[in-house]
Please model this.
Amino acid sequence: MKNRFLKILIVAIVACVISLLIVKTYAPKKAETSSSKTAPVRVNSKEQILQPSVEISDTLHENFIAADLKVAYELPACPSSLLTKHEGYTLQYDEKNEQARWVAYQLTAAETIKQFERTNKFITDPTIPSGSASDRDYRNSGYDRGHLAPASDMGWSAKTMAESFYYSNMSPQVPAFNRGIWKRLEEQVRSWAMELDTIYVVTGPILSGNLQFIGPDQVAVPNYYFKAVFYFHGKDSKAIGFVMENRKLQGSLYDYTITIDSLEKLTGLDLFASVDDQLETKIERTTCTSCWNWNVQKQTTSVRKDSNLSNSVQCSGITRSNNRCKRRTKNQNGRCYQHQ
Model:
């Protein structure tokens, strides 16, 4: 009986030892297997496309989604703390150069129907903590206060029209450029919005190279301007970019087209950062001018008369061509801003 008990005890001890050896042998492998199932780090395809020398800002677009807002396809990658949001457009202000680094907005067909006339009331942007440029910077400078987000794209409400005249939305443009090919490009973009129903626009100065400055606040005069347009519609999505020198230009608009990829390298911006990586890569590498309709549609107008615009008179100033200025003004001296 005693011998039988010893045999059972020995067998139990041996079984325990074997069990401990098995646990010791296989436990690390299980831990390793578990860790191998962690999700791989997702590499942004943008890093594979852009040259290493290009500086790309951190994107915080998730904040917009988390805030239960629309996906802002028009916004370049930018920390939310640097964004200035207005009713009709968003911008990133460049304090050093006293103007927006870029302005972005969604434009729909309905928003191209102008309901409010231009106010022509240029004012400093009250939302810029450091203060934006002002009248004194442009006075007698020889440059137009060129809109980045055009007033004609912002005529769908009184507020958006008024905010389009903030100096944060202005940039010094050569008059022949502002009133010539830049205006034609703005009309073309509006026409695409009418045709396609919804497009996303990013536009701004290229603030690099040897720049001149005007006014007491030292507003930089860009040598070039850019505009990028994105149409989101599944497999039919497309994008197109433009770069234009700040001077009188001739030729067709598509003479100044550029891929979004090349435009990003010029500006250092990550445009349309909220777009799916695969689609973003596809639309940014090529420019298909034939994919866009270059016939310009006329803008529809359903203007509500603003009492503030009544009693305006034609400016009494004389232009360089010795003709009377065609602008209208409510200034008591009968002169528009350019002939003060």
